[in-house]
Amino acid sequence: MGKVKTKFVCQQCGYETARYMGKCPECGSWDSFVEETTIKDTKISNNLPLDNTPPPMLIKDVKIGEEIRVSTNISEFDRVLGGGLVQGSLVLLAGDPGIGKSTLLLQAGGELSKSGKKILYISAEESASQVKLRSDRLGVNTDNLYIYPQINFELIKRHILDQKPDTVIVDSIQAIYSDNIQSSAGSVSQIRECCNELMNVAKSENITMIVIGHVTKEGNIAGPKVLEHMVDTVIQFEGDKYKSYRTLRATKNRFGSTSEVGIFEMGVNGLEEIMNPSEICLKEYNQSQSTGSVIIVTNEGTRPMLVEIQALVGTTPYPSPRRVTNGVDFSRVLQILAVLEKRVGLNLSKQDVYVNVIGGIDIQEPAADLGIALAVATCARDVMVDSHTAIVGEIGLSGEIRAVNNIEKRIKEVEKLGFKKILIPANNSVNEKFDNIQIIKVKRIIDAISACINNK
Question: Is the whole-model pTM more than 0.85?
Answer without folding.
Answer: no
